[in-house]
Automatic annotation (TrEMBL):
<feature type="transmembrane region" description="Helical">
    <location>
        <begin position="118"/>
        <end position="136"/>
    </location>
</feature>
<feature type="transmembrane region" description="Helical">
    <location>
        <begin position="238"/>
        <end position="258"/>
    </location>
</feature>
<protein>
    <submittedName>
        <fullName>C-type cytochrome biogenesis protein CcsB</fullName>
    </submittedName>
</protein>
<feature type="transmembrane region" description="Helical">
    <location>
        <begin position="300"/>
        <end position="320"/>
    </location>
</feature>
<feature type="transmembrane region" description="Helical">
    <location>
        <begin position="273"/>
        <end position="288"/>
    </location>
</feature>
<feature type="transmembrane region" description="Helical">
    <location>
        <begin position="148"/>
        <end position="168"/>
    </location>
</feature>
<feature type="transmembrane region" description="Helical">
    <location>
        <begin position="12"/>
        <end position="30"/>
    </location>
</feature>
<keyword id="KW-0472">Membrane</keyword>
<dbReference type="InterPro" id="IPR045062">
    <property type="entry name" value="Cyt_c_biogenesis_CcsA/CcmC"/>
</dbReference>
<feature type="domain" description="Cytochrome c assembly protein">
    <location>
        <begin position="115"/>
        <end position="321"/>
    </location>
</feature>
<keyword id="KW-0201">Cytochrome c-type biogenesis</keyword>
<keyword id="KW-0812">Transmembrane</keyword>
<dbReference type="Pfam" id="PF01578">
    <property type="entry name" value="Cytochrom_C_asm"/>
</dbReference>
<keyword id="KW-1133">Transmembrane helix</keyword>
<dbReference type="InterPro" id="IPR017562">
    <property type="entry name" value="Cyt_c_biogenesis_CcsA"/>
</dbReference>
<feature type="transmembrane region" description="Helical">
    <location>
        <begin position="85"/>
        <end position="106"/>
    </location>
</feature>
<feature type="transmembrane region" description="Helical">
    <location>
        <begin position="180"/>
        <end position="206"/>
    </location>
</feature>
Length: 347
């Protein structure tokens, strides 16, 4: 295949992945809508243990017994069916997503890893979010997170295609290094795990708010989300996994690569500064959890502050900084002749 054919395949695969993600989101929304008709008894709310050796949290309300007046086993079967369809479509979308990354790398001359610009970084980051969700879904019981994860990935893909798309080009001299693979792989893995932890923190705050204001219901999405203690624990474990990976990316491989490229370990570049700010916020989160006993609401707010600095560094700094040496990561306007992939829903 020619380079242009590989690039066209990558664009088509992104569009196909977006469509399948959209179908997966619809399946999970139908599942959630059906669950609104199945109330959860007060004494049967989910109390799943989470972690190595612990049983996986069932999909939404599977651990709870439906109250009297529910629509019976046929309705429960339809709920389970749409949940399985949604997860299967998410797996398929992830595979197609991977094809788009592979084809993107093959489209370059010479062939390279698909991390040459902001479009490719975001394409990789969203893939890792999906991959981590699929891999950790059973281990950490994350099936209740499905609609939020799929919606998050779909929205970022649309942003990536609409505003960040750039045609395939050779790597710049600064990027043409073995450290590219080591640094970026660790960074995107940490970004994916931090993002999942941030979603847990958002759900914690929403569920706590509904409880404290007396609005907790036996139906609806939040009634199927795990208890506050489980949400807090899952968020902590995701952050605890991501933090050493981020440390490796930001404080070890990043400075080594910077010294190789620019003859200096630290350049006070905006990307470097914000990556370090993100590291400090997450370090404070984990330190507060382990020493000051911060749990629940305060920990969730601090985790979301970390998520905000993470994604501002990942995408936002490219739009606000004109002095960054990481200029290759900024979005580039595509030539008129280049055809960006089109996602379902008008992207």
């Amino acid at each position: 295949m020619s380079d242009s054919a590989w690039e066209a395949l990558s664009n088509q695969a992104v569009a196909a992945a977006g469509l399948v993600y959209f179908l997966a989101l619809l399946a999970h929304l139908v599942e959630w809508s059906a669950l609104r008709k199945v109330p959860v008894e007060a004494g049967a709310r989910e109390t799943a243990t989470v972690g190595a050796g612990g049983p996986a949290a069932p999909a939404y309300g599977a651990s709870a017994e439906p109250a009297a007046g529910s629509e019976g086993p046929d309705h429960e079967h339809r709920i389970d069916l749409f949940g399985r369809i949604g997860f299967s479509l998410t797996v398929v979308a992830g595979l197609v997503h991977a094809v788009s990354l592979l084809a993107r790398g093959m489209a370059a001359d010479p062939n390279r890893v698909p991390w040459g610009n902001m479009y490719e970084f975001t394409l990789s980051g969203t893939f890792v979010v999906t991959l981590l969700y699929v891999v950790m879904r059973r281990r950490l019981g994350l099936s209740w997170m499905a609609p939020l994860v799929v919606g998050f990935v779909l929205v970022l893909l649309m942003v990536d295609v609409i505003w960040l798309y750039a045609p395939v080009s050779p790597l710049t001299e600064a990027l043409n290094s073995p450290w590219l693979v080591i640094h970026v792989v660790s960074a995107v893995i940490a970004t994916g795990a931090f993002s999942l932890g941030g979603i847990c923190s958002v759900l914690y705050l929403l569920k706590e708010r509904s409880i404290t204001k007396g609005r907790e219901s036996s139906t609806g999405y939040l009634s199927r989300v795990p208890s506050l203690a489980v949400l807090d624990r899952v968020s902590y474990r995701l952050h605890a996994f991501a933090f050493p990976v981020w440390t490796f990316a930001v404080l070890i491989t990043g400075p080594i690569w910077a010294h190789q490229a620019w003859s200096n370990y630290w350049n006070w570049d905006p990307k470097e500064v914000w990556a370090f700010i993100t590291w400090v916020v997450y370090a404070a989160y984990l330190h507060a959890r382990s020493t000051a006993g911060w749990k629940g609401r305060n920990a969730a707010y601090l985790a979301l502050l970390g998520t905000a600095t993470l994604w501002f560094n990942f995408i936002g700094i490219n739009f606000f900084s004109t002095t960054s040496q990481h200029s290759y990561a900024a979005p580039e306007p595509a030539p008129v002749v280049a055809e960006a992939p089109v996602l379902a829903g008008g992207a």
